[in-house]
Design brief:
three-stranded antiparallel sheet; Pantoate--beta-alanine Ligase, Chain: A,domain 2; 9 strands; 11 helices
Length: about 280
């Protein structure tokens, strides 16, 4: 059975509260649509972890700093609904931007520090848009669990900090990155790659694997950039070894690190990451 679809925050909240009144647990999977296997893996895990699953499909204008990128972002609500139905999602919340951000909407949520490095530095305002929309979505859905993907590691760190700092009553669950056979992390943006770009895109994952052979930040970065240089169509935004909590260079004594990379192809910008022990 296909999940119900609603654009109404009130309808969504009423439906979820009815489930919770019956003692049912609720998991929430926020998406911007254009769903792929990575999203569906999140929905699958959510279904196994809770009695009910709500997914949102909303292309959030606040997290785009390029109007052309926002306009080009793929949208297919009917197709997304069909895919979510296969995973047993119970409700799809698909708000309309004009109603979700009515004229005069002025409140923004900013997570200081984490929003100014790496992705934050290259996409000013992006994480404020992410934190704002997820705080609104959590207030509407009121879930027990929030499911996020490891591919967007800095986003996970920012939302986890926001949830802790603002005392949201929700548990963050993080699912592993889903990859194509050649290692490329699945992303809605992959569909925009030309055949030549797609052939070179797995260089991001190869770079992470090369960086994982080193334990110092400098050596890891050099190894990643050397591998990325083989992808002639890509321009590297960053390649670094960071502390997964702060996204700064690991301090002495830190036991776990995160390799992060971002590269711009002519048709799309891609990111990826890999956990490592130090």
């Amino acid at each position: 059975m296909a999940p119900s679809v609603t654009a109404s925050p009130a309808v969504t909240r009423t439906r979820v509260r009815a489930w919770r009144a019956r003692g049912e647990t609720v998991a929430f999977v926020p998406t911007m649509g254009a769903l792929h296997e990575g999203h569906l893996a999140l929905a699958r895990r959510a279904k196994h972890s809770a009695d009910r699953v709500v997914a949102s499909v909303f292309v959030n204008p606040l997290q785009f700093n390029d109007a052309r990128d926002l306009k080009a972002y793929p949208r297919d609500l009917a197709g997304d609904r069909a895919l979510l139905a296969r995973e047993g999602v119970d409700l799809v919340f698909a708000p309309r931007a004009a109603a979700f951000y009515p004229k005069g909407h002025a409140t923004r949520v900013t997570v200081g520090g984490l929003d100014r490095v790496l992705e934050g530095a290259h996409r000013p305002g992006h994480f404020t848009g992410v934190a704002t929309v997820v705080s609104k979505l959590l207030n509407v859905v009121e879930p027990d669990q929030l499911w996020l993907g490891q591919k967007d590691a800095q986003q996970v760190a920012i939302l986890t900090r926001m949830i802790q700092d603002l005392d949201f009553a929700v548990t963050v669950r993080v699912a592993p990155t889903v990859r194509a056979r050649d290692g490329l992390a699945l992303s809605s943006r992959n569909a925009r790659l030309t055949p030549a770009e797609r052939a070179q895109a797995p260089a991001l994952y190869r770079a992470l694997k090369a960086g994982a052979r080193h334990r110092s930040a400098g050596a890891a970065e050099r190894a990643m950039r050397k591998e990325l240089a083989r992808a002639k169509l890509a321009k590297v935004d960053y390649a670094a070894l960071v502390d997964p909590r702060t996204f700064e260079k690991p301090r002495p004594g830190v036991r776990r690190g995160l390799l992060v990379v971002a590269a711009r192809f002519p048709s799309a910008r891609l990111i990826d990451n890999l956990k490592v022990n130090l």
